[in-house]
Amino acid sequence: MTFPPYRAHVVAEIPITTRAERERALAVAGYNAFNLPADQVTIDLLTDSGTGAVSARQEAAAAAADRSYAGSASYYRFRDVLAELTHYRHILPVHQGRAAERVLFSSVLAPGRISVSNTHFDTTRANVELLGAQARDLPCAEFTELDSLEPFKGNIDLAALEALLTGPEAGHVGMVLITITNNGGGGQPVSMANLAAAAKLARAHGVPIFLDAARFAENAWLVVQREPGYGTKTPREVAEEAFQLVDGCVASLKKDGISPMGAFIGLNDPALAQRCEGNLIATEGFRTYGGLAAHDLDRVARGVQEVLDPNYLAARAAEAERLARLVNEAGVDIVQPAGIHALYLNAGRLLPHLPASRFPGHSLACALYLEGGIRCVELGSLYLGTLDEQLELVTPAPFELVRVALPRRVYSQGHYDYVAEVLAGIAKQPERVPGYRIVEAPEFLRHFNLRMAPA
Ligand code: F0G
């Protein structure tokens, strides 16, 4: 039996709203959950980023932080914890993951270069494209079998990677980036065997390889559970090995750092670290705070140690598995097998009366809000499809999914029972869920800003 190795210490109220209030709020928000004021949201499953509950020890460490501009003791604690975990020689703090991406990529990529990944997260892709470079996703073939129980559907397609590194575009590849766990790819883990093979290929062709390690501890936990040869290792040992297989990392610490803010770049190459440091000082902050407040550095230093506790990871994985079971019992399919940080609901299958052009994933996300005040986000044609000038869908995404993210240490079984109940209510009469059309959409990162209407 597993249970969370912590108890609530300070709690926050959650808003309870009426159906009429939710209808009004969603209409005012242009049917876009990113525009909803949080005080209109009952269960917020939009993201697991920066939303985790901090521990009393993190708060104690934060209270004792050293706010010196240069050389603060908080920085040395941050650096030592991350250097011991990753074994990288250079640890640069930045305020969040996308800043790490911008700083590192601008030292590695240039117009016309290619960044190749199992899947770039959306800000990661945006930071590659802002440099005039190209983001190329090579997810493994197993990912497209949403129902299959393959253990490592987050892997990169090694044959496709090799073909790229030996083909006509080989000279243009600027870096390989492996996202663990693969957030854009169903939250699925990457195996150590896949990571090692990708690193070997990259090295053989003189291309640097980095981790996007936002969920390093959760990936390590799934490796311990699923990969032959790793069953007796600790999540910490697996995470250390993963970091050492590659040349460096970018990592948002708003996820597995269990902190409201923070991230870092880890590197071995001194020349690359120096280039990044120059950029960091010009755009984020001095190298010993990188845009973070001292209390953030200390919260992260403590959070990174807490997240690797096997009892915590076992309870967190069990929570996701339990919700996955309840969701399946409610008649809703998810991307299998359940990962840890989120469940990805198969909205396309649940709402067959809605064509991709009416955005079934978005429709399900709106229904969850209207029925239960639950906020989550579409990962389907609204996010990935291409539109014409009239904002009609031209190329749909391969799947119409909804990501239900699970904040760390925040909600308990009762909350998740409620989520499953709301979903079961929708799944009883799925044909009643209306579709949506796009009314207004910016060109870049449109899902954050677009406005929709029922259609
Ligand atoms: N990489 C991955 C894999 C991520 O999931 C995220 C953020 C980032 C980079 C960027 O980090 O937010 O600190 O700037 N993911 C959040 C999410 C926003 O909801 O999945 P950040």
What's a concise summary of this model?
Pfam families: Beta_elim_lyase. This is Tryptophanase. It contains 16 helices and 16 strands.
Write the layout of secondary structure elements.
Blueprint: H1 19-28, E1 43-44, H2 56-63, H3 73-86, E2 90-94, H4 97-108, E3 114-117, H5 122-130, E4 134-137, H6 158-166, E5 173-179, H7 192-204, E6 209-212, H8 216-226, H9 235-245, E7 248-252, E8 263-267, H10 270-283, H11 294-306, H12 310-329, E9 342-346, H13 347-350, H14 360-372, E10 374-375, E11 377-379, H15 381-384, E12 386-387, E13 393-395, E14 401-405, H16 413-428, E15 436-440, E16 451-454
Parallel strand pairs: 1-10, 3-4, 3-5, 5-6, 6-7
Antiparallel strand pairs: 2-8, 7-8, 9-14, 11-14, 12-13, 15-16
Helix pairs in contact: 1-14, 2-11, 3-11, 4-5, 4-10, 6-7, 7-9, 8-9, 12-16, 14-16
Bound molecules: ligand F0G.
Keywords: Antibiotic biosynthesis, Pyridoxal phosphate
GO molecular function, one term: lyase activity
Domain Aromatic amino acid beta-eliminating lyase/threonine aldolase: 44-421
